[in-house]
């Protein structure tokens, strides 16, 4: 099941891998998490990292221009500052592998090097995206505490001391807030994806359980029918055994019944192959409904308060195979039950048409209910079971809303 799940999930990201960050893709893609290696950069990662590198270089150049206009700094200090800034810009490419280490190192480096300020901002943002808030709080807190000391050591010639401190503190808070927002958005994507995976797994398990229950119910019905056929065959065979002197007409009639019962038992046995049985201790003597019981089903529904119209246009209904008749009855029964739950007060039309060689068609329709209808919870297990019944008899079943807002169930069953 794990392999099937991975095969179903991987195509979702096959065409959009470049759009996701490598860390997020590593969590979304099951194949990436099995390798045990650090996720490789995606095309999006390269674009973002190169943009961060250019931004750090640009801010370093602006800082270098500010240093060149400071008469109180010696050329040696300016050159050392620019060298440190260049090394810091190269360290931007390490921000994904060591976000906490880079951010912690950049706190003292940016304090002594003005051209490293852009790298410190990028490192703090990366830390906020990739690590929990407690690490971000420590690094950002230390960096904020050094702000007044930094401007006391290197005052800004264009802004007052207080304005410079407030501006840099606000910028630090904005960077941290933006990074935490990106992190929470990524966590939301992972949460939604995990929720969708669980929902798909639960839906698949419910569908498998519904199919299994439907197969078990069909197996019980087939067992009952086979018991009836074989009992009938045994009775007539026993009569021939104990009355060998019976008239030829009775012998011929009993032989015909035996032949017909054996033929129908073989047909039912073919249907039961592959169907799981629920148990051996079930009652095997209950009668099974057939197509002739549809009239009684409609009358029973009318007595329950439904408006049911039954239209039967079946050629020679007495020759409908028992298994097909049972399936048609169960489909009509489940469809009427659904209409009573989800569309109370509407007129339900049950139409049965067909003939030998052309198949049997069962259609149950109801219009949209009027007014507000109370919501009745349901997981669609009945419809899954009906589809399984139709499939096991060699037919098909489809269902869905109609253009008028109503609902229709249509089954086509073989009758050859």
TrEMBL record:
Domain Histidine kinase/HSP90-like ATPase: 327-414
GO molecular function: ATP binding; phosphorelay sensor kinase activity; protein dimerization activity
Primary enzyme class: transferase
A Pfam family annotated for this UniProt entry: HATPase_c
Keyword Calcium: no
Record keywords: ATP-binding, Kinase, Membrane, Nucleotide-binding, Phosphoprotein, Transferase, Transmembrane, Transmembrane helix, Two-component regulatory system
Catalysed reactions, semicolon-separated: ATP + protein L-histidine = ADP + protein N-phospho-L-histidine
E.C. number: 2.7.13.3
Domain (Signal transduction histidine kinase subgroup 3 dimerisation and phosphoacceptor): residue spans on this chain: 215-279
InterPro entries per record: HATPase_C_sf (IPR036890), HATPase_dom (IPR003594), Sensor_HK_TwoCompSys (IPR050482), Sig_transdc_His_kin_sub3_dim/P (IPR011712)
Tagged with keyword Transmembrane: yes
Coiled coil: none
Gene3D superfamilies: 1.20.5.1930, Histidine kinase-like ATPase, C-terminal domain
GO cellular component terms given for this protein: membrane
Positions of transmembrane segments: 46-64, 102-128, 135-153, 159-181
Designated name of the protein: histidine kinase
Protein species of origin: Streptomyces pilosus
């Amino acid at each position: 099941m794990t392999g099937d799940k991975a095969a179903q999930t991987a195509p979702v990201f096959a065409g959009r891998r470049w759009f996701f960050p490598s860390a997020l893709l590593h969590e979304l893609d099951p194949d990436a998490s099995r390798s045990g290696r650090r996720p490789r950069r995606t095309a999006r990662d390269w674009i973002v990292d190169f943009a961060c590198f250019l931004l750090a270089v640009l801010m370093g150049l602006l800082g270098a221009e500010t240093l060149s206009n400071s008469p109180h700094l010696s050329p040696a200090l300016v050159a050392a500052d620019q060298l440190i800034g260049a090394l810091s810009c190269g360290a931007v490419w390490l921000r994904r592998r060591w976000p906490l280490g880079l951010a912690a190192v950049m706190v003292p480096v940016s304090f002594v090097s003005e051209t490293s300020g852009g790298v410190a901002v990028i490192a703090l943002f990366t830390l906020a995206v990739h690590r929990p808030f407690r690490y971000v709080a420590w690094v950002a807190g230390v960096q904020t505490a050094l702000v007044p000391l930094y401007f006391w050591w290197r005052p800004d010639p264009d802004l007052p001391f207080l304005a410079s401190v407030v501006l840099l503190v606000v910028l630090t808070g904005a960077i941290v807030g933006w990074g935490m927002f990106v992190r929470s958005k990524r966590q939301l994507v992972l949460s939604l994806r995990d929720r969708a995976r669980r929902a798909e797994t639960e839906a698949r398990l419910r569908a498998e359980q519904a199919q299994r229950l439907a197969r078990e119910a069909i197996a019980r019905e087939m067992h009952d029918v086979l018991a009836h056929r074989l009992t009938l065959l045994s009775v007539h065979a026993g009569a021939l055994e104990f009355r060998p002197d019976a008239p030829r007409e009775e012998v011929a009639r009993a032989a015909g019944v035996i032949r017909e019962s054996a033929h129908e038992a073989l047909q039912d046995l073919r249907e039961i192959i592959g169907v799981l049985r629920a148990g051996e201790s079930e009652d095997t003597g209950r009668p099974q409904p057939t197509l002739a019981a549809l009239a009684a089903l409609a009358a029973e529904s009318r007595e329950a308060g439904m408006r049911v119209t039954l239209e039967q246009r079946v050629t020679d209904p007495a020759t409908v195979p028992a298994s097909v008749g049972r399936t048609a009855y169960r489909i009509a029964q489940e469809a009427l039950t659904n209409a009573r739950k989800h569309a109370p007060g509407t007129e339900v039309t049950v139409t049965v048409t067909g003939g030998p060689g052309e198949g049997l068609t069962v259609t149950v329709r109801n219009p949209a209910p009027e007014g507000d209808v109370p919501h009745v919870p349901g997981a669609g297990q009945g419809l899954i079971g009906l589809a399984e019944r139709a499939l096991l008899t060699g037919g098909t079943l489809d269902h869905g809303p109609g253009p008028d807002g109503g609902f229709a169930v249509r089954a086509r069953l073989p009758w050859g």
